[in-house]
Structures are given as C-alpha cells and as structure tokens.
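Thread: quick sanity check before group meeting

JM: Hey all, I'm pulling together slides for Thursday and realized we never actually wrote out the predicted structure for the chain we discussed last week. Dropping the sequence here so it's in one place. If anyone has concerns about the input, flag it before I start.
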Amino acid sequence: MLHLHITVVMIFMFSMIFKNILMLIGMNETLAKFRAKTKIMEMVLGTLMLLTGGYLLYITQNLAPYMIVKIMILFAVIPLGIVGFNKHNKVLVTLATLLLIYAYFISKTNSLSFNYGTAQPTNSIIDYKGTPAADSTAAGNIIDQNMQNVVSNAQPIFVEKCAACHGLDGKMQANGAKDLSKSDKTLVQRVKIISEGKNLMPGFKYQLSETDIQALAVYTQMLKQ
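JM (edit): ok, ran it. Output follows.
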C-alpha cells in the first residue's frame, strides 16, 4: 500500500508539472488535448492518492505535525488544480504544483523543512567493520551506555516508518515485509537492512541518525516471539 501511494503521488505530481509547464509557455492547445486524454486517469489518481494516504494514516496512527500539513496540502492541491486549469489561472496552477512538490519532499524526509536526520556521535553498539557483537551483549551495552531513552524512543519511529508494512506487532507482512516476530536476523543484519533497505523496503540512513537506527534495530528484535 505504501509503494502504491508513493507511485500514485509521483505520477500525479509529474502530470501536474507537465501541464503547468505547458500553461506557462502558452501551449494551450496541447494542454487542452493532454487534459482531455488524461482526465479520467487523473480523477482515478487523485482518488487513489487520498484513499491510500488515508489508509496509511489509519494503520500508522501518525499524527506528527509534518503529516498533518501533508494531508492538508493534498486535500488543497486537487481543487486548486481543477479551478486553476478550468479558469486558466497560472498562479493557482503553479501554486498547486509547488504545494504538491512540497508535500512529496515532506514525505521523503518526514520533515517540514526537508531536514534529513544526521548521524550523532555515539558509542556504537555494533562493530561496523563487520564483526558483530553477541546480540545479548549488544543489548546490554545499550543499557550500560544509558541509552534506555533512545530505545524507548524507537517505538514511535517504528510506528511512523515501519508499521505501514510490518504492522504494529511486526506481523503484518504487507508489501513483502518480513514477519519480525519470527525473524532470526542479528542486530548487525537489522541495522544494515534499516540503513540500506532491502527489496521494496527503502533505506533510512539519510533520514535517521545512527543512534536511532541502532535503537530501532533493538526494538524490532524485541518484537520476536
């Protein structure tokens, strides 16, 4: 569902950008033909964009400020675009296009200011040169290093970024996601997958700090039955 939502938003966004360009350079006849051919498609895309976004919001229960702003933008973009194109108003169309692009980058960065997470200095719980510590030892090191709060903060991160596919209990297996309650991955492997992604799962190394990724890895291990 997450990948369907992203795909729909991207197609809708590129269509808006293309039509906006046609309007701005005065190719009104071409614009009219393009709109006529894609009218039904864009109605479907607009509906899918709102439905899939609403479903993901319901599943993740993510009411962070950036998410609320994104939803408001998406609800505003469609009527703004319709009115703008119907009245041939370049200002409204450009505004709708820019808002849609802004909403897309909000989704990519989970931030209103496109602020990607940066790695923070920390005593690593894992040897990144490829020598994994024992899982139990690694988990113990977190406590020894006073990182209990970091681990507790991993739950909202999981809800925000992972629950759409894994479910709140790690068992949902949507979009090819693995059942985390049965996963035998080590902490090292979990950190690598969270950082770099795997198959349909995106990597989060540019969105989360090193500390958050490690804490999230520990949290996913806690979901194992």
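AS: nice. The two ends are 26 Å apart (CA to CA). The chain is about 65% helix and 0% strand.
JM: adding both to the slides.
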